[in-house]
Amino acid sequence: MRFHRRLFRPAFLALLILLIVGGCAVKPVDEGVQPSEAQLIEQARQAEARSEYEQAAQDYLQAAQITQTAVPADYQMQAVAALLRGNFVEEARQILYGIEETALQDDLKIRWQILAARIALTENQPHAALDILATAPLDKVAAEQAARVHEIRAQAFLRVGNFLESARERVVLAPLIPSSEKERGRANQEAIWQALQRLTDEALLQMQVEPPPDVFTGWLALARIAKQSQELPLDVAALVDEWRAKYPDHPVSPDIIDSLLARQQEEVKRPTHIALLLPHSGPYARAAAALRNGFLAAHYNRSNQSYQPVIQIYDVGEDSRDVDTVYEQAVADGADFIVGPLRKDAVNRLADRMRLPVPTLTLNYSGNPNHATGNIYQFGLAPEDEARQVAERAWLDGHNQAIALVPEGSWGERVLEAFRTDWELLGGTLLEYQFYPAGKNDFSKQIQALLNLDESHQRHKRLEQILRQPLKFEPRRRQDADFVFLGAFPRQARLLRPQLKFHYASKLPVYATSHIYTGHEDRNADRDMDGIIFTDIPWVLHDRNVPLPLKQEVMALWPKSVRQYTRFYALGIDAYNIIPSLNTMRKYRYERFFGHTGVLHLGAGNRIFRETVWGRFEKGKPVLY
Q: Do residues 15 and 54 both lie within one domain?
């Protein structure tokens, strides 16, 4: 939802100013007959029911002026809550911070803190929200208020990437949720599960400080079973039985247990004959070969050697129309699961079919997001996914005003549109964007237009013409932008970053997708990109102290190819490993698969979305950010 600054009607604005300046001792703005306190409160509640939040806030504020039975701050905070529901965030802030928090009793004080923390979260300040709630007197307030505090803390910890504390807050929150609010309780448990699945196996083990039957330790232990079952051939049912014996009264939802047990059931139903459909010639042949090698590396690396499905590879050629014939041949040959094709036009042909005879995992996405049949899953390295994550990361980093620089052509248009859509949904503003010619080396024209330096030069020329004399001049770039979204490949990124600095934008943060990085370290070539923040897959960006054995094997087998197509190797590995989890992920949408291309989850239309990791160039070297 996007938050807009909206202007109140003059009468309300006058009332607001009087309240802020003079407290509640002012006379009503309207000199006519005033409704009673009870009438105003009833009017306010009716206005809220009609979603007329501005009117509701007016009524609450007028009640605060005349009340003889309540603390004025009570009604003022009800006005703030109404304004927040209507997204009048700035006006809500003005009223709330006009109340003297230190003079409030505990029940009103915690309401003030909850509202202030909500405003901080809305304004993308999770650390501020945590600071505000740090002194909340939870032992002196009602359960619902305590629940709200824990819920906001959980949201704030999640925003700053502290998954452990987010889960801990929600575990404390769970018993405070009324049993009648079943959907709220279910959503809270799913949020606990999702947060814990983001932790490493080592963290899940080390944080089990309290012995059984401690509830939080129980959650950690169960999440560890889930984590390990994705990587090793475990008897999940036996492990869950052992867990139940240690934590007999644990409040975990049966759905979460069922989703865990379903993993083992899906292992039993794993395909026995997999067809891999890839082009062996044409412009996609080398990427397809890397993907194939990754797929086979994962197949031969499986810890459970008792499961060895037949892998049959088919050439789909360069003509997308051939995919139908090849697909039917694979099915006729006995394939009970198909992976591919890779080309988008071929994926579109399969997605257009009403029904596919066997489950199919494509290696790209159809052009129509509404394409969905029951048997098709779509997976790939879509740049749009990364552009959306750039928007989310920049927002979480506290930015609000963006400018964008992307290459001319369909790729640049796609990533720009994905970034802009998510950025504006979050509440950000895209001030300006420019398309640059990717084949050139000098991007001054586009950068000057993006930074409004061209307007600065024009003003200088006009002044010289008016005064008829030369003037000393230093261009001034625009000051309203918080950061630059950069769409670029390595060659362009290495040129663009220094040129941005040259044009007075050295202090402007730059965010980019993985495409700026080749995937292998080259400090001399990449030193000009220092400071750029970018997203990439865990296969490329990971803790160098934690080796990836399969990556080391792949690099030894295909040293040249892996340098150029490293991300396609990771895609092939994940495409193989995720197959047993797809049905479980479809049934339980909160399930996550931790792959080399990111944390994967199944979204609308059975499209697999990736959550990647973040890096920053320092001295020509990408480091985790």
A: yes
